[in-house]
Design the sequence.
């Protein structure tokens, strides 16, 4: 595991975009695992800039997203499909037919999970998986649990996660109660993991995940067993790691 401290959010975003861009340059037909949420917005902005400058070509890239709310259509402005279109897809040349997310409106949830597993398998597996981290240590929507779920599954979102995401909806009641998420096994199968964290709200989760016991109670802690993890975080997010481990 490598930890890079970013000076600020802009620096974090630039560092992350440079790593993703290196991946695409080295392997133009890379499979990128993508995340939504506040953390990667700046990274996507930087990727769009690199594309606009002519430094990056996504024409052979495939993307698979981590998760999607159940019950929201792709046109709903809080769906993760909409987020991805808005922040990345509509600005770059990723082929529409090769950008995948679970279908939030799928009538049969279990069948949708199976379909999404097959989609990911068919891509040949994720080369680089971008991750944010929840304040409770979740990755994707793999919430603290009794066990690690391997493949795509439907989750009941914790109150904490719904409260954290309520900022994007007009009320807490509007935040969906369920979501589709890639499983921990699929995330761990990615060849490289790039996890981003900013702000002191992530400090405890980051410390517990990378320096605490490996437990499904802190889903990201499983990443300690992955052989190629890069963490880019700002000082506030790294404060507990600094306190316990000294300077990095
Ligand atoms: C998003 C996702 C989540 C977020 C996490 C952090 O696709 O899978 O695990 O990465 O909730 O969210 P932000 O970045 O909004 O703090």
Sequence:
């Amino acid at each position: 595991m490598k930890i890079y401290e970013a000076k600020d959010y802009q620096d974090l975003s630039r560092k992350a975009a440079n790593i993703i861009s290196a991946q695409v340059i080295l392997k133009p037909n890379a499979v990128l695992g993508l995340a939504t949420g506040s953390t990667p917005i700046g990274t996507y902005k930087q990727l769009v800039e690199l594309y606009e400058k002519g430094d990056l070509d996504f024409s052979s890239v495939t993307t698979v997203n981590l998760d999607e709310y159940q019950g929201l259509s792709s046109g709903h402005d809080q769906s993760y499909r909409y987020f991805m279109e808005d922040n990345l897809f509509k600005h770059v040349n990723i082929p529409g037919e090769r950008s995948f997310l679970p279908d939030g409106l799928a009538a049969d949830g279990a069948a949708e999970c199976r379909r999404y597993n097959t989609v990911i398998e068919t891509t040949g597996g994720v080369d680089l998986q971008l991750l944010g981290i929840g304040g409770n240590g979740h990755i994707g929507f793999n919430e603290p649990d009794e066990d690690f779920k391997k493949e795509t599954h439907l989750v009941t979102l914790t109150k904490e996660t719904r409260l954290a995401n309520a900022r994007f909806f007009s009320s807490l009641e509007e935040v969906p109660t369920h979501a589709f998420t890639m499983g921990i096994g699929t995330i761990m199968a990615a060849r490289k993991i790039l996890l981003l964290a900013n702000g002191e709200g992530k400090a405890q989760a980051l410390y517990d995940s990378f320096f605490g016991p490996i437990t499904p109670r802190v889903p990201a802690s499983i990443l300690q067993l992955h052989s190629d993890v890069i963490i880019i975080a700002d000082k506030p997010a790294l404060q507990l790691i600094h306190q316990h481990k000294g300077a990095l």
Q: What stands out?
A: Helices lie at 9-26, 41-52, 80-87, 109-123, 159-165, 184-189, 203-211, 235-245. The domain at 2-242 is CATH 3.40.50.1360 (Rossmann fold).
